[in-house]
Design goal:
- The structure holds 2 protein chains of 2 kinds.
- By secondary structure, chain A is of the alpha/beta class.
- Chain A is about 35% helix and about 30% strand.
- Chain A has 12 helices and 14 strands.
- Chain A is elongated.
- The two termini of chain A are about 20 Å apart.
- The model of chain A is unreliable at about 305-315 (pLDDT under 50).
- The mean pLDDT of chain B is about 90.
- The chains are: A alpha/beta, B mainly alpha.
- At the A-B interface, helix 2, strand 6 and helix 3 of A face helix 1 and helix 6 of B.
Chain lengths: ~325, ~260
């Protein structure tokens, strides 16, 4: 079979008592794709990740990896998966090297290739300097890297990362994101996160899950379009009257936020005009910035504007 | 058994030897074993004159080794819950079970591996224990048949203890809960036959007696190596290991 589909998820459902944590989710993953799995906390991201890695049995649905059913032949299917859960699964009493030796063995890599696999993972995750240190003594950032090393050590076709940047400082976050981008060159990656810019920076395609349902499934460009801001925040030293602002072309409505700040909604950006007016009328422009939509706003918009999620998923498939 | 189980077992054993808990258990227990051994040895030397006059007098094995093994069984009952408690519960609390669940290995291999790891550690303790009475072979003669019957009985007993401990550890996320419940079960199985004489019904008392671990171990400690006792320990061990496998499978299923 020469299907470009690496993983296909059909009608995946998971129920905890009365609560449907994941509700009939369908999606596919193509070879070499970095897929962002976006959703607020409690949307069902981790549950989905646990199911597609075999850590949790689905209530209903089918998971096919490289043509192999995960539930029928777990051993074969799992060999294609590397998984970094939310909490990195580390044996902190071991050194990085000892830990990776264990990982390589339980992933069934032949004795001859073990050393190569370990050295490659150490290299790719930048663990060379710390490989003989105890995992418990490493910083959170390095522990996360050890977790990623564990996920890629057996060269799986799919690497699944569940919120890999949570709890890291900005520099570590940048490094991990760079690493994820690099992983995309050799593996298909599923990246679960609640941080929007992370997806924009690293992914080719994005899926948004909300209350257990898939509400958006499209390329990053489409997401950026649907995210485009429709308002500006402006602050002035000496406040103009709202009427004066409203008179500017393209301005739709004005909201006074107090302290001489205004939210200016528009259809086509009036930023240039506002700047010109502000200089001419000596308003003393301090701030003028497009307002970023929050993830919640996007969810609201998507959930309200695209009620038929079945249609969206089918269009992509 | 497959390589995977051995990999898990050696990791388990390694982590045990990296933890201060295991070393302190080894140290304290060995100290107690040595004390009991020396006390027995002392008594044996003191009663030498009387023994010399007796016909069919008990030898060093009967006088020192078997009582030592019998007492050590109780000490094992006290410390095994501490060794098995974190085997699965600890990994669950530490979120490291995911690495085993994601790897292409079966639940059976995971449980067998963990059992072998713990069992390996306990065998070390049992060997350290056996070395002391064995050292008497330099100065006297030992009844090796009796000695090894009792020692194998002890090994089978601690294998059953370990299997029960692993099952209790698979039920919870908190190692201490696992330790206490393991201890409770071991104690119950141990004292079951105390209550037998209080039960009027002969059939019921027979059943209780059969379930008691003490009865089966006692026979072996006397040098009566019967297949019933042997099978009893094998059945107890495998039952609890199978239950553990099922419990881990249940982790993935409905909650």
């Amino acid at each position: 079979m020469t299907t470009p589909l690496l993983m296909s998820i059909e009608h995946l459902t998971r129920q905890y008592g009365d609560l449907k944590a994941v509700d009939a989710v369908n999606f596919d993953l193509k070879r070499g794709e970095v897929l962002g799995f976006l959703g607020p906390n409690g949307a069902g991201k981790s549950t989905t990740m646990q199911m597609i890695t075999g850590n949790l049995a689905p209530t209903a649905g089918k998971i096919t990896i490289n043509g192999i059913d995960l539930l029928d032949q777990p051993k074969l299917a799992k060999a294609e998966i590397g998984y970094l859960p939310e909490q990195p699964p580390l044996y902190t009493e071991l050194t990085v090297e000892e830990y990776l030796i264990f990982c390589v063995k339980i992933n069934g890599i032949s004795r001859a290739n073990q050393t190569t696999a370990i050295n490659r993972a150490i290299d790719r995750c930048g663990l060379g300097d710390v490989k003989s240190r105890l995992i418990s003594n490493l910083s959170k950032g390095y522990q996360q890297r050890v977790g990623i090393a564990q996920a890629i050590i057996h060269s799986p076709s799919i690497v699944i990362l569940d919120e890999p940047t949570v709890g890291l400082d900005p520099i570590q976050i940048r490094e991990i994101r760079k690493l994820i981008r690099e992983l995309g060159n050799e593996h298909s990656v599923i990246l679960s996160t609640h941080i929007l810019p992370e997806v924009q920076m690293t992914c080719d395609r994005v899926q948004i899950i909300h209350k257990g349902k898939l509400v958006f499934n499209d390329s990053i460009e489409c997401l950026n379009q649907s995210m485009q801001a429709t308002s500006l925040i402006a602050q002035f030293e000496s406040a103009p009257s709202t009427e004066a602002l409203k008179a500017i072309t393209n301005v739709d409505s004005i909201e006074d936020l107090g302290n001489h700040r205004f939210r200016i909604s528009y259809l086509e950006s009036p930023a240039k005009q506002i700047a010109i007016e502000a200089v001419n009328a000596k308003w003393g422009l301090i701030e003028l910035s497009p307002e970023q939509k929050t993830l919640e706003q996007i969810f609201l918009e998507i959930t309200s504007s695209e009620p038929s999620l079945e249609k969206t998923t089918k269009d992509v498939a | 058994m497959s390589m995977n189980a051995i990999t898990i077992a050696s990791r388990e054993l390694r982590s045990l030897f990296l933890s201060p808990l295991a070393w302190s258990i080894l140290g304290v227990v060995q100290f107690i074993f040595a004390y009991i051994f020396l006390a027995q040895l002392n008594t044996f030397i003191q009663v030498q004159p009387q023994l010399a006059t007796m016909e069919n007098a008990p030898g060093a094995t009967e006088f020192i080794a078997t009582p030592l093994f019998a007492t050590s069984a109780i000490i094992f009952m006290l410390v095994i819950p501490l060794i098995t408690m974190r085997v699965i519960a600890g990994e669950r609390a530490n979120h490291s079970l995911a690495i085993l669940f994601t790897a292409p290995i079966s639940m059976t291999e995971i449980v067998i591996g963990k059992f072998l790891g713990v069992f390996g550690f306990l065998i070390c303790m049992a060997v350290m224990l056996a070395i002391m009475p064995l050292s008497l072979a330099f100065v006297g003669s030992l009844d090796y048949g009796l000695f090894f019957s009792a020692w194998i009985g002890l090994v089978l007993l601690i294998a059953s203890f370990a299997a029960i401990g692993i099952y209790m550890s698979s039920l919870t996320t908190q190692p201490t809960v696992a330790a206490i419940s393991t201890f409770g079960i071991l104690l119950m199985l141990w004292i079951l036959d105390w209550s037998t004489n209080k039960v009027a019904d002969a059939n019921a008392s027979g059943a209780l007696e059969y379930l008691s671990m003490l009865r089966h171990f006692e026979a072996m400690a006397k040098g009566l190596f019967s297949s019933t006792d042997f099978m009893y320990f094998i059945i107890v061990s495998s039952t609890f290991l199978i239950l553990s496998i099922r419990r881990l499978d249940g982790d993935r299923l409905q909650r």
